[in-house]
């Protein structure tokens, strides 16, 4: 019986090995070479790529940006989506309409979202910014500021992503046994206490999963940075993903690009290990 | 039995998904996936290009594919327009696949592919078609690798001042020909609440190359840039430090798009110029292609846009044109129709093609012909302004006076670094730090023989 179950996992295993594992092994190997991505005239150079990137100011900057981005991502959209999901859970009418509205940014392509924000909001010619400036309110453009550009892009990515988190959390909230809720209400539990002692413990497995996914995805952020600032101004929004891309496709240094990708993987792996250990320590009833 | 059938179905589906991603690519021109294949008896040849507007696509289809397809009946050129063309081409030709005619972002990009054997040497076609005598010498030389031509330059590009004639007239300003005159106009414009000059890199950070080109050549001087590019002088020297420092001063004073440099795109710069928000846009001549949306007959301001060479400084006389090519075209080494691909390149290196494309698409198709002789009677509006610029550039360059556009004459890793000039502007790095890093990267490129041939200014 156990052997037969493995057969059902075989297709997924074949795909994972061929699409994920083999390229991953190739990336690991490439990170120790001077591969230019064009011909197989490559040489093993040991840890040279890693030594160079860890003494590279831009890499350190990108790493710092990734950490900041992760902190923002693991706090802001998670908090907003939890709060809104909780409020919608208690809403009796119109819940579905709100869900659809909040999910729209998530279903739009990243290019569409970026264009909307860059042209309809941030643009000094056609955006909301220009309306404020015409009225005499001189708001600086978030994308023009070294200190503010990362947050300017983060706002757009959060706007895109939080709706999805909210929908997942809402579905989890609605699975909470209503007898627990009733009992708490009878005992005089208010909104915050109800959330803290009844709803949140019930959605904890879902919350842990989504939190781990957010952590992993935050280290892979690429599209909004690439579309909106391409790492600028002055590398203020450079991320490990965009830096790796630049090494590979602009400078033909695939070995170094792979070494940056390896660092990204380590962080993702770290988040995965934390999640797996948290999950395995749960008791199942 | 049912379980066996179910298992067999799952395995079949999984294998189908896996194998559908695998192909054997040997002949680029017969793969429909790459745009090749047979159609109505004609073998398809593929060319990939960036995702320009419908009107521009129509112009290129008519003037290039239409011309080629009409001159013979065995092959059909099909041009595919892709938003991610740079990446698509990089991946495809690295895998010995891709289009027959290969669009490229300039000689520095081409050198990497040529040295890896991914592009065909055009040496036989140079002799056959006489390209050496047809093309401007500095750009011809820049497109060679180890003495052989590997790409053709198709778009003469320079840095200068777009200006609004009406704004200059209303404010009693003349087109500046010296740097002091430019400072005077920009300061007065700022005092009136306008942008001193418009500039920006929104949507294309690599547009920083325009300003690196400008400041290195006009504030350090073409001779200094030549010495640096040939390895005779380091970048981190006082001449170049001062030029980079000047660029940072300009940025801080708001001469480059005010506080909105990273928030202004090419189109927005033209829109702001057309609405009188500034007297100038400082940018590359290829911006003409974005101007017709804002300077046109419908708006009644087609003749309002002018373009002038960047004013003279104590390091670069007036006029000095930093020359480059926006794009290049090559022949894929993997194609089995090299002669036909070369014929298509030859169509581009012609006055007829340049003229027809400039009428429909001013700013991009200024083929750097040694003899221009453009029929101005066919030009009007922006095409006329652009053609006049090409004629002036042609005379100046042929006389040996030019400077070096970063995107064309700098090797790829060094070029990538020059886009970080904004780290100096924002105070993240000093000019010395920026140039010291540039020296390190340039030396690596020099050692790897990736620096294009650098023509000497007379």
Topology:
The complex is a heterodimer of chains A (285) and B (458).
Chain A: H1 2-30, H2 48-54, H3 57-89, H4 95-107, H5 110-121, H6 128-134, H7 149-173, H8 178-186, H9 191-218, H10 223-228, H11 240-250, H12 254-280
Helix pairs in contact in A: 2-12, 3-7, 3-9, 4-7, 7-9, 9-12, 11-12
Chain B: H1 2-19, E1 37-39, E2 42-50, H2 54-70, E3 75-82, H3 85-94, E4 101-104, H4 107-115, H5 123-129, H6 131-134, H7 137-142, E5 144-145, E6 148-149, E7 152-153, E8 156-157, E9 159-164, H8 165-170, H9 179-191, H10 208-219, H11 222-229, H12 238-253, H13 266-274, E10 280-284, H14 288-291, E11 305-309, E12 322-325, E13 328-331, H15 338-348, H16 351-360, H17 381-398, E14 403-404, H18 406-409, H19 412-418, H20 421-425, H21 431-447
Parallel strand pairs in B: 2-3, 12-14
Antiparallel strand pairs in B: 1-2, 4-13, 5-6, 7-13, 8-12, 9-10, 9-11
Helix pairs in contact in B: 2-15, 2-16, 10-12, 19-21
Q: Could you characterize the architecture of this molecule?
A:
The complex is a heterodimer of chains A (285) and B (458). Chain A has twelve helices and no strands. With 285 residues, chain A is mainly α. In chain A, helix 2 crosses helix 12 (254-280) and helix 7 crosses helix 9. Chain A is globular, with a radius of gyration of 23 Å. The model of chain A has no long low-confidence stretch (mean pLDDT 89). Chain B is an alpha+beta fold. Chain B has two domains: 28-156 and 325-398, D-Maltodextrin-Binding Protein, domain 2 (3-Layer(aba) Sandwich); 159-320 and 410-447, D-Maltodextrin-Binding Protein, domain 2 (3-Layer(aba) Sandwich), CATH 3.40.190.10. Chain B has 21 helices and 14 strands. Chain B has a three-stranded mixed beta sheet with strand order 1-2-3. In chain B, a hairpin with a 2-residue loop joins strand 1 (37-39) and strand 2 (42-50). In chain B, helix 2 packs across helix 15 (338-348), helix 2 runs antiparallel to helix 16 and helix 19 runs antiparallel to helix 21 (431-447). The N and C termini of chain B lie far apart (86 Å). Residues 20-36 of chain B have low confidence and may be disordered.
């Amino acid at each position: 019986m156990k052997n037969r179950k493995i057969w059902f996992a075989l297709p997924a295993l074949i795909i994972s090995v061929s699409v994920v594992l083999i390229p991953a092994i190739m990336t690991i190997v490439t990170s120790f070479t001077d591969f230019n991505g064009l011909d197989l005239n490559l040489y093993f150079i040991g840890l040279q790529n890693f030594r160079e990137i860890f003494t590279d100011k831009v890499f350190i900057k990108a790493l710092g940006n990734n950490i900041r981005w992760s902190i923002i991502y693991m706090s802001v959209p998670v908090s907003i989506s939890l709060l809104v999901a909780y409020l919608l859970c208690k809403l009796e009418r119109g819940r579905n309409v709100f869900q659809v509205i909040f999910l729209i940014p998530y279903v739009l392509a990243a290019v569409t979202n970026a264009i909307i924000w860059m042209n309809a909001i941030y643009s000094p010619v056609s955006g909301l910014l220009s309306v404020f400036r015409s009225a005499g309110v001189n708001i600086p453009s978030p994308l023009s500021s070294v200190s503010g550009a990362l947050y300017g892009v983060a706002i757009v990515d959060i706007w895109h992503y939080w709706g999805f988190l909210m929908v997942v959390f809402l579905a989890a909230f609605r699975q909470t046994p209503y007898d627990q809720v009733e009992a708490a209400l009878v005992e005089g539990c208010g909104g915050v206490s109800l959330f803290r002692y009844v709803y949140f413990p019930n959605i904890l497995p879902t919350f842990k999963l989504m939190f781990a996914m957010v952590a992993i995805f935050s280290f892979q952020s690429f599209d909004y940075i690439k579309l909106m600032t391409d790492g600028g101004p002055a590398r203020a929004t450079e991320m490990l993903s965009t830096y790796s891309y630049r090494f590979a496709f602009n400078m033909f240094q695939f070995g170094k690009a792979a070494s940056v990708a390896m660092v990204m993987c380590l962080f993702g792996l770290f988040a995965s290990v934390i999640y797996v250990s948290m999950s395995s320590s749960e008791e199942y009833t | 039995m049912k379980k066996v059938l179910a298992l067999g179905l799952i395995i079949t589906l999984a294998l189908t998904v896996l194998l559908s991603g695998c192909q054997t690519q040997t002949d680029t021109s017969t793969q429909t996936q790459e745009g090749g294949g047979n159609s109505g008896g004609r073998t398809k040849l593929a060319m990939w290009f960036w995702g320009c507007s419908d009107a521009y696509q129509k112009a290129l289809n008519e003037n290039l594919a239409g011309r080629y397809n009409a001159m013979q009946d065995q092959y059909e050129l099909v041009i595919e327009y892709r938003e991610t063309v740079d990446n698509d081409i990089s991946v495809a030709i690295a895998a010995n696949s891709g289009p027959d005619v290969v669009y490229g972002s300039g000689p520095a990009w081409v050198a990497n592919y040529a040295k890896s054997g991914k592009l065909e040497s055009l040496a036989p076609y140079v002799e056959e078609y006489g390209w050496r005598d047809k093309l401007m010498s500095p750009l011809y030389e820049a497109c060679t690798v180890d003495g052989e031509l590997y790409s053709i330059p198709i778009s003469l590009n320079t840095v200068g001042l777009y200006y609004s004639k009406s704004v200059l007239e209303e404010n009693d300003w003349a087109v500046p020909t010296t740097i002091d005159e430019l400072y005077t106009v920009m300061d007065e414009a700022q005092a009136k609440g306008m942008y001193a000059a418009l500039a920006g890199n929104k949507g294309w950070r690599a547009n920083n190359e325009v300003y690196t080109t400008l400041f290195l050549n006009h504030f350090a001087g073409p001779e200094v840039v030549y010495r640096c590019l040939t390895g005779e002088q380091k970048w981190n020297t006082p001449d170049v430090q001062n030029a980079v420092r000047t660029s940072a001063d300009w940025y801080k004073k708001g001469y480059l798009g005010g506080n909105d440099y990273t928030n202004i795109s090419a189109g927005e710069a033209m829109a702001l110029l057309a609405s009188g928000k500034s007297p100038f846009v400082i940018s590359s001549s290829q911006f003409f292609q974005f101007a017709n949306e804002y300077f046109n007959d419908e708006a009644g301001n087609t003749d309002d846009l002018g373009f002038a060479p960047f004013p003279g400084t104590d390091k670069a006389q007036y006029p000095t044109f930093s020359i480059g090519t926006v794009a290049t075209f090559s022949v894929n080494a993997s194609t089995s129709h090299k002669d036909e691909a070369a014929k298509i390149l030859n169509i581009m290196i012609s006055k007829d093609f340049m003229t027809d494309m400039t009428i429909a698409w001013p700013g991009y198709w200024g083929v750097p012909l040694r003899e221009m002789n453009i029929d101005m009677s066919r030009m009007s509006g922006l095409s006329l302004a652009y053609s006049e610029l090409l004629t002036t550039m042609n005379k100046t360059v042929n006389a040996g006076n030019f400077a070096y556009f970063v995107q064309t004459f700098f090797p790829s890793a060094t070029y990538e670094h020059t886009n970080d000039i904004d780290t100096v502007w924002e105070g993240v790095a000093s000019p010395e730090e920026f140039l010291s890093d540039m020296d390190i990267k340039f030396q690596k490129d020099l050692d790897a023989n990736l620096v294009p041939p650098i023509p000497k200014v007379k």
